[in-house]
Q: What sequence folds into this?
């Protein structure tokens, strides 16, 4: 989880009367011990369950926090820990057991309002009676699950044989979504690794699992590839890392200019791939043979 130093400052600017209280540790990281029992009972008024934490008086206990919807509880923890929660951020450290089910119920309720605003008669139209529930499940459990689930387990092996030759994995299928219009991004990724004797080797399938975890979030392609490179660099620690992604963007094919023939290709080169043009050329030439 990446941190944004301005989140707490934003909260304090929006709640000037509560700044001193905020310094009394009412904001807590969810990984710390639970808060003590409050001196006064939690507010059970209707507004307590719907207002944003940024506009609420500070929550003094877990009981107060429990009165909020799951989305507000999670947001409150994120703000308290000064952590960013952009569309492509993983927030699983701040989601507690059972809260994804609550999130799905919240999203379904809001999606039902969207359908109503679109003047769709979900009472009479049998095709849309379960649409809100289906869409909520799709967002939380499937297409955006990379936000709410922790990184999949990755088994690492020591480089006993001291392998130091180019390895290429791909093409790996990519299914993501544009954070501008929430339209699908469908494509392929190739990963090139140049290990050294101190590198960690990971199973072949783990590359696919990591790609899937990173890509199942709303985002733009340029940031997705960079994020993937950062994770692999940290886990494998190779001398060189290269990633190429090619994808169709439905935000351009389905809407807008409606250009069905355009695709986007971008790359990230690290270490030896950035410095050695021959290695880079070898990697790219092998990609063309793979796609022929």
A:
């Amino acid at each position: 989880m990446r941190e944004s130093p301005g989140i707490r400052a934003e909260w304090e600017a929006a709640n000037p009367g509560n700044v001193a209280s905020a310094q009394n540790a009412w904001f807590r990281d969810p990984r710390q011990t639970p808060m003590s029992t409050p001196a006064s009972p939690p507010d059970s008024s209707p507004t307590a369950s719907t207002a944003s934490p940024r506009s609420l008086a500070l929550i003094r206990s877990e009981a107060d926090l429990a009165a909020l919807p799951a989305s507000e509880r999670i947001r409150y923890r994120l703000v308290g820990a000064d952590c960013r929660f952009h569309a492509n951020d993983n927030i699983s450290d701040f989601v507690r057991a059972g809260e994804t089910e609550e999130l799905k119920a919240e999203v379904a309720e809001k999606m039902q309002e969207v359908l109503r605003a679109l003047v769709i008669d979900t009472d009479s139209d049998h095709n849309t009676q379960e649409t809100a529930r289906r869409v909520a499940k799709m967002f939380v459990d499937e297409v955006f699950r990379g936000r709410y689930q922790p990184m999949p387990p990755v088994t690492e092996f020591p480089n006993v044989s001291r392998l130091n030759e180019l390895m290429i994995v791909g093409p790996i299928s990519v299914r993501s979504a544009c954070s501008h219009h929430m339209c699908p991004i469908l494509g392929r990724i190739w990963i090139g690794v140049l290990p050294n004797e101190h590198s960690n080797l990971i199973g072949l399938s783990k590359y696919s699992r990591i790609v899937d975890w990173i890509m199942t979030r709303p985002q733009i392609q340029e940031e997705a590839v960079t994020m993937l490179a950062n994770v692999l660099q940290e886990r494998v620690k190779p001398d060189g890392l290269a990633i190429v992604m090619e994808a169709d963007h439905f935000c351009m094919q389905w809407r807008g200019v409606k250009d069905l023939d355009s695709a986007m290709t971008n790359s990230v080169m690290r270490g030896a791939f950035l410095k050695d043009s021959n290695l880079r050329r070898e990697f790219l030439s092998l990609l063309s043979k793979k796609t022929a």
DSSP finds twelve helices and seven strands in the chain. The chain has a mean pLDDT of 83.
